[in-house]
Amino acid sequence: MLQIQSFTFNPFQENTYILFNEEKKAIIIDPGMLDAVEENSFFNFMAEQELEPILLLNTHTHLDHIFGNAAVLKKYTIPFAFHLLDRPVFDSAAAVSAMYHVPMQTSPEPSYYLESNGKIKLGADELSILFTPGHSPGSVSFYHEAQKILISGDVLFQMSIGRTDLPGGDFDTLANSIHTQLFSLPDDTKVYSGHGPMTTIGFEKMNNPFLRK
Known about the structure:
Elements (H helix, E strand, L loop, with lengths): L2 E7 L4 E7 L4 E5 L6 H13 L3 E6 L5 H4 L2 H7 L4 E4 L3 H5 L1 H7 L12 E3 L4 E4 L2 E7 L8 E5 L4 E5 L2 E2 L2 E2 L9 H12 L7 E4 L5 E2 H7 L6
Parallel strand pairs: 3-4, 4-5, 5-6, 10-13
Antiparallel strand pairs: 1-2, 2-3, 7-8, 8-9, 9-10, 11-12, 13-14
């Protein structure tokens, strides 16, 4: 059974997630730690829980979701992956961080690229990779069917959706991703977003003002 620990980091108030099982194996998703205080908070939790990370994933590679990639990969020798179509976003991170006057450590290169509709294993648990572009060209979401858990990145938020005015964003593409990939999931699926509080698929179907047809 998966457990989820979340942290809210950096000036963009980004949600960082650790998924872990009863065997203490863990997947780190979108580490947003920007300074020593945030890094200590993150790594202290890992140590206190005696977690052994096996994989680092980015739902997408906007800078607020990759600030902590370098620190994680310096501490742990683990594979790191995101979707190939987000490569241009990844490559622009240094320029974007300079534009925002937010210094960041350069992220290491990915070990491999995630495949649309692929699977990720964490012991007996399995995450499906849902290709959900629109906020960025290679945005993906991770779905755990057994527990009805969705890590949505910046695709879907409580009562909102991801920005589409950044390079590579497109509203129609994002709306299609949500309606076809996410709204096809059970209504009681818990949605853990890249920013803000948890929500559910059913609540967003009924109430999200950006997605009413």
